[in-house]
Specification:
It is a single chain. The protein is of the alpha+beta class and 172 residues long. It has two domains: 125 residues, Alpha-Beta Plaits (2-Layer Sandwich), CATH 3.30.70; 40 residues, no CATH class. Helix content is 56%, strand content 15%. The protein has a five-stranded antiparallel β-sheet, sandwiched between helices. Belongs to the universal ribosomal protein uL10 family. This is Large ribosomal subunit protein uL10. Forms part of the ribosomal stalk, playing a central role in the interaction of the ribosome with GTP-bound translation factors. InterPro entries: Ribosomal_uL10, Ribosomal_uL10-like_sf, Ribosomal_uL10_bac, Ribosomal_uL10_bac_type.
Length: 172
């Protein structure tokens, strides 16, 4: 591979790292072509981009993308496959599903919203990780809950001041 081709790959990987913000580094070595194609198909169905690259090119792409993490660099040994996703936990859920069928892919590391998670033992934590949108929805639901209770009490009390007072008394 020529130097220009390597530089193009590094640039493309760095752009993906920047644009997605979430990526996983996995080990898919020794899997059959059939299994790899199955993984690729499932990634496509779940809007996960899968990319295989040499560790040296991944390391250069990390630096190019402004991620200078020794933790991530330390896992770049053996075969490495990158999974990119808009959702921080989608690749973890996919890996968990795939692990029911075999012992690979193995999670080497994940980088979710500027935080590195290193090691396969982090998989369960990543599966349960909520996205930014899910957290915002939880906060909105928590804020709306008291207002819904007051409105419900008002409606059951006949929309009167005495109904409101009764509802507030019952809650207090």
């Amino acid at each position: 591979m020529r130097k220009e081709e390597k530089q193009e790959i590094v640039q493309a990987l760095a752009e993906q790292i920047k644009s997605y913000g979430n990526f996983y580094i996995t080990d898919t070595a020794d899997l059959s072509v059939e299994k790899i194609n199955g993984i690729r198909r499932r990634c496509f169905e779940q809007d996960i981009v899968i990319q295989v690259a040499k560790n040296s090119l991944i390391e250069k792409a990390l630096i190019e993308a402004g991620i200078d993490s020794e933790e991530l660099k330390s896992v770049l040994k053996g075969a490495s496959t990158l999974l990119f996703s808009e959702s921080g936990n989608a690749p973890a859920k996919l890996i968990k599903q795939l692990r029911k069928e075999g012992d690979k892919p193995v999670l080497k590391a994940a980088y979710i919203q500027e935080t590195a998670f290193v090691g396969d033992n982090q998989l369960d934590a990543l599966v349960n990780l909520k996205s930014k949108d899910e957290l915002v929805a939880d906060i909105i639901a928590a804020l709306q809950s008291p207002a819904k209770n007051v409105i419900s009490a008002l409606q059951s009390g006949g929309n009167t001041v005495s109904g409101l007072l009764k509802a507030l008394e019952d809650r207090g």
